[in-house]
């Protein structure tokens, strides 16, 4: 028997509820666009310029788009956009260089297996469409089982156990209404949907100086609010994100590998599963875990500072907010990382790149 929460989501349609316009999850036929790049347009293996170049397509050529991905924002000849289109040949191009006539159609999202069409999956009944991401918000209409959905982005909301899965994720449709992802099926697996309001994915900085320039301000803001030395924060970000090369950092702006443990907390936008490696008793193994997804780097750095302040095992470290080296040693002793060289690794990075210059008492910090 479905739960009370699921029954609340399934329609017992109210007479006053307005009908929802059917939103196709995919165009009837794969749409064609014209390349408008003022020269050859590079093909990529993924939705960013950091992904390998796989060839090119001539300016003025016709291309067929099969699905879209949320990727690096590109200012093209036609528009500035974070959307990339996967072509019928399996390669990606920025939608910023494609000319559509009369307008860009609704494309399904890409999954690792290709174009994945999203549909209502209720098990038979109709599904309520809401004004927000919970059953406490107004019912704005209903959708029949099997109806196609045009999804814009996701939000973290009320946890729902539905026909497809149990999840806190809700899909915001292109008409501004919401359906729980617990009641949505995907023909070729879950796509990497953007979180609503999320900054587009980034590409790795060109070098160490570019990385430090990117994160120095968020780290200094973290010191102002939470008293975590900026030099320590930057060093941790370097270690945890691999100089912002990790997919977790590029895609969801998570610079510190902070996991969800059931909740994104008060700062992150939501949670996403990633392949990772865990180590216990000297043995490491591959697994999957859910990590926090952020609006941008600033939010990630703020959550890092907040994380340290709300866990009392790190209290001693804050006696050394103006002594970064000792601060690093104290959070290590308190269990921040299992590597026996973690504190020394942080101090080595701080010294090598003179990260102390971002601390308010830079001279004392070097001692």
From TrEMBL:
Mannosyl-glycoprotein endo-beta-N-acetylglucosamidase-like domain boundaries: 202-359
InterPro entries: Glycosyl_Hydrolase_73 (IPR051056), MGlyc_endo_b_GlcNAc-like_dom (IPR002901)
Keyword Hydrolase set for record: yes
Coiled-coil zones: none
Annotated signal peptide: 1-29
Gene3D superfamilies: 1.10.530.10, DNA polymerase, domain 6
Source domain of life: Bacteria
Pfam families: Glucosaminidase
Keywords associated with the record: Hydrolase, Signal
Protein's UniProt name: Mannosyl-glycoprotein endo-beta-N-acetylglucosamidase-like domain-containing protein
Species assigned in the record: Asanoa siamensis
Higher taxonomy: Bacteria, Bacillati, Actinomycetota, Actinomycetes, Micromonosporales
